[in-house]
Amino acid sequence: MTRPSPGPRERLLTAGQHLFYARGVAVGVDALLKEAKVARRSLYEHFGGKDGLVAAVLHRAAEEDLAWYDAALAAEDEPRERLLGLFDRLDELIANDDFRGCRYFASDVALDDPDHPAHAETEAFRRRLRERLIRELEEMDHADPERAANQLHLLIEGTLVMGATQDERQPARAARDLAALVLGGGGA
Question: Which of 2, 46, 158, 3 is nearest to 15 (CA)?
Fold first, then answer.
């Protein structure tokens, strides 16, 4: 039994996710349509235009990325080790030749309009990641989980930005050392 090929909506999402990450959200509509092998009408029918597609791609990517963070956090038994281990997983991620940095940061920087629907998606992603960090910090009875979550989040975002621009400097390892200070309670 053959599996049906994806429809225009799915092809647009897949093309958008690939091109926006590889080349940025400024990629042209014609390139998106060509990669997705769809007519311009499909873009407007399914997403109302490129802005809607950008937001939908970021929403889908956020679900995938949050699942990645969940899996990374699940790799260890203790909350402190889970949080430190997250930086080990980030080290592996940024070592990948296809790594291009943080898609949420890149989108926010590229989209000048503060009302662009993509900003709501990037904000929601960050809020949900921060909630995961707070949960882990509360589980380890950290004295100030909100503040520590902000600090860890800064280290994560910094790792992703630096990882896209700094060959061989291994920012995730430096961030892990700083995260150990934020977490307290023992050596790295």
Answer: 46
Q: State pLDDT tens for residues 26-54.
A: 999 999 999 999 999 999 999 999 999 99
The CA distance from 38 to 151, in Å, is 43
Q: Can you give the CATH number for the domain in which 122 is found? A: 1.10.357.10
pLDDT in tens, 72-90: 999 899 999 999 999 999 9
Please give the sequence-ordered ranges of beta strands (E in DSSP) within 5-58, or none if there are none: none
Render 52-78 in DSSP notation, one character per residue. Answer: HHHHHHHHHHHHHHHHHHHHHHTTSSS
The number of distinct structural domains making up the chain is: 1
User: Tell me, what amino acid is at 182?
Assistant: V
